[in-house]
# Entry
Amino acid sequence: MGILKEERSLILQQGFKLRVKLNLIHIFPYLLLRGYSSFKKMYQENNIFPFGQPLRQVKQKSRTNKDVFVLGVYASAVHARWVDARGKQIVAALAVASEPEIFWRGDGAEKIISEIHVPAEVGRLEPAAAHLNGPSGNVLDQKYLEPLGFKREQSWLCDLLPESRVNEKQRAAIDKYYKPIVKKYDLPESTVPDFDISELDSLKGRKKYYVSWKNQKRTR
# Structure
């Protein structure tokens, strides 16, 4: 009886170990994904625009079935006109925050910009010219969706890069006007990445957005 009890105990222990291993095999990829997700979130929150707004992901909000799929390159930004204390223009359109929604049309720019703190010594921010905020969203609606008979509510919108990037003109403005005053006025360093086309080559997984939309169409 003693031997049988020991064998049974050993079998139970081995069975428990096997179950633990199997569970870890199933859970480990999940933990990796969660870890990557957390790292990506930290990466985004640690990258900031001039004057301190965090870089955020901009994604499709409505998850219902759609009739049209629209793919952009990278998320845009809210642009402000930066003037000095005397009102003289420093930069006509400086990217200072992530756009509030994908293919944003420029509405609410004044409110977003007014909430950004700028030391009086370095001037103030004002909304950039109307055509400089939300141009992609307006062109999408007016030149593509409407002529084809579609509304935005019928469209699944996506960017290959769901965060904003810094183009050459923005980089030049940041380097010339913002960087030189960062230490003097204790401003946050601007760390939003420059646009690098090689990023697009490594994003084969982005096709999942199209596949997701296509699968929706099949189930309707």
